[in-house]
Amino acid sequence: MFDVFINYLKSKFILTDEQVTLIQSVCHLKKLRKRQYLLQEGDVWRFNAFVQKGLVRTYRVDDKGLEHIIQFSSENWWAGDRYSYLSETPARCNIDAIEESEIVLITKADYDMLLETIPALNTFARMLLERTFVAAQNRIHADISFTAEEKYHEFLKTHPTLINRVPQHMIASYLGLKPETLSRVRTKK
Amino acid sequence: MFDVFINYLKSKFILTDEQVTLIQSVCHLKKLRKRQYLLQEGDVWRFNAFVQKGLVRTYRVDDKGLEHIIQFSSENWWAGDRYSYLSETPARCNIDAIEESEIVLITKADYDMLLETIPALNTFARMLLERTFVAAQNRIHADISFTAEEKYHEFLKTHPTLINRVPQHMIASYLGLKPETLSRVRTKK
DNA sequence: AAAAAACATTGACATTTGTCAAGGAAAATT
DNA sequence: AATTTTCCTTGACAAATGTCAATGTTTTTT
């Protein structure tokens, strides 16, 4: 049931059988249909969420009703609204499924317990956060430096597997472009 | 000599006198003149750097020689190229002083030792990283969603103290705008 | 105090990107 | 298989932002 998740963890650091059992005991499986919300704006996000299968998006909606995609999370990635999680305030993000998905949820209390009990998980979690931050800074760099065309090619490089799974207008949203602009950028080359 | 740094740490968590002494024993003070490099592209970044006084910028230079500012770090903030630090590869960022500055440097080896020796520092470092990541995501959101004018007002809100210390063309660079555009945005209101 | 360098503003114009509307293709649903 | 919905593309035009050049100001250096 949590095989993908456990294998992911095992590929990152060493786990004893007891630790595996402990982790599994706090995991909850959530299945999402396409378009189903994992988190809706206004609710507090209280989990660590790992995508075992499928693809979800994290996005915000502005005053004009436009969606702006902050992140895609496919298999073996994490999803969530870290701000809501840390501050325990209502989320400004929505998360929903682009494809039918399978998510492993662990509550904050359980996750903190795991961090304390399993030192290797703690170390891994920090490394993951560090790398995630580096990726975020690279994206900022692209956002402030690149033209529409360069942004698109950067996306192809950094997310090669997503191109065929994510509708183009969502890639445009992620890049801060209008769908028409992305369409033109793509045909130009 | 490291008073500002030690007071910063003490304001974040409790430190014993021995821990203070230990920390001080691995700190190095670096004074920067205006425009002096703290890190130059191509060198490997090997430190944790805390700004005690002054103001530095982290930026990248593109093919056309244009500078794109990733981050400003003033008193009581950190600076560095985390990617270079983690991967021990040549930095793509430059860091230099906007004002005469005073930086506390701790090497990676010493910093890791501190993390292991002082559990409260470890916890604090993770919390700091988490909050920094949230801030980075908020900036991404602004970059992909806002108009030039909105970006500027967001900057006023999130960095109120920097407006009078950072030349406008650098704020423009941070926001991904041209200096002329920022100038026009400012006078329009 | 004078000279030099860096900085900000403005105008005229170019380019990029966005907007709106329409049509057709692809995918999901019935 | 038919229908509906979502998605992508295209054209004509609008708006936002960038480019270039000139000028005056401020700040830094000498």
TrEMBL record, chains A, B:
Residues 30-116 form the Cyclic nucleotide-binding domain. InterPro entries: cNMP-bd_dom, cNMP-bd_dom_sf, RmlC-like_jellyroll. Signal peptide: none annotated. This is Cyclic nucleotide-binding protein. It comes from Flavobacterium rivuli WB 3.3-2 = DSM 21788.
